[in-house]
Amino acid sequence: MRLSAIRQHGFGHLGVKVNKQIIYTMSAFEQNPIKGVLRKGVPNMIRRTRESFFVIAIPALLAYMAYDWGVTAQAKLDRKDPKMYENDV
């Protein structure tokens, strides 16, 4: 069932009129997209990296150590035992 065909309105037009609503906007041509990147953005990125270093680094290090242990243990288990093949010709 298409409600827009019944009500003769498009999507988003509910027929309710809002009074005394003021919207302030700035043109996209008046905004500077790279304003303050070097002066504020880079120091902020460094500060946030320093603050969250141990939160990320410690679990990452533990995960890498567990992965490395698993790879070496699997390599040891995959090796053939030479004693099983001593009597082969």
Automatic annotation (TrEMBL):
Keywords per UniProt: Electron transport, Membrane, Mitochondrion, Mitochondrion inner membrane, Respiratory chain, Transmembrane, Transmembrane helix, Transport
Subcellular location: Mitochondrion inner membrane
Cellular component GO terms, alphabetical: mitochondrial inner membrane; respiratory chain complex III
Entry's transmembrane regions: 53-70
Lipid bilayer topology: Single-pass membrane protein
Gene Ontology BP, a term: mitochondrial electron transport, ubiquinol to cytochrome c
InterPro entries the UniProt entry points to: Cyt_bc1_su8, Cyt_bc1_su8_sf
Pfam families to which the protein is assigned, alphabetical: UcrQ
PANTHER family per UniProt: CYTOCHROME B-C1 COMPLEX SUBUNIT 8, UBIQUINOL-CYTOCHROME C REDUCTASE COMPLEX UBIQUINONE-BINDING PROTEIN QP-C
Membership in a protein family: Belongs to the UQCRQ/QCR8 family.
Self-association state and partner proteins as the record states: Component of the ubiquinol-cytochrome c oxidoreductase (cytochrome b-c1 complex, complex III, CIII), a multisubunit enzyme composed of 11 subunits. The complex is composed of 3 respiratory subunits cytochrome b, cytochrome c1 and Rieske protein UQCRFS1, 2 core protein subunits UQCRC1/QCR1 and UQCRC2/QCR2, and 6 low-molecular weight protein subunits UQCRH/QCR6, UQCRB/QCR7, UQCRQ/QCR8, UQCR10/QCR9, UQCR11/QCR10 and subunit 9, the cleavage product of Rieske protein UQCRFS1.
Function of the protein: Component of the ubiquinol-cytochrome c oxidoreductase, a multisubunit transmembrane complex that is part of the mitochondrial electron transport chain which drives oxidative phosphorylation. The complex plays an important role in the uptake of multiple carbon sources present in different host niches.
Protein name: Cytochrome b-c1 complex subunit 8
Species: Ciona intestinalis
Top-level taxonomy: Eukaryota, Metazoa, Chordata, Tunicata, Ascidiacea
Gene: LOC100180671
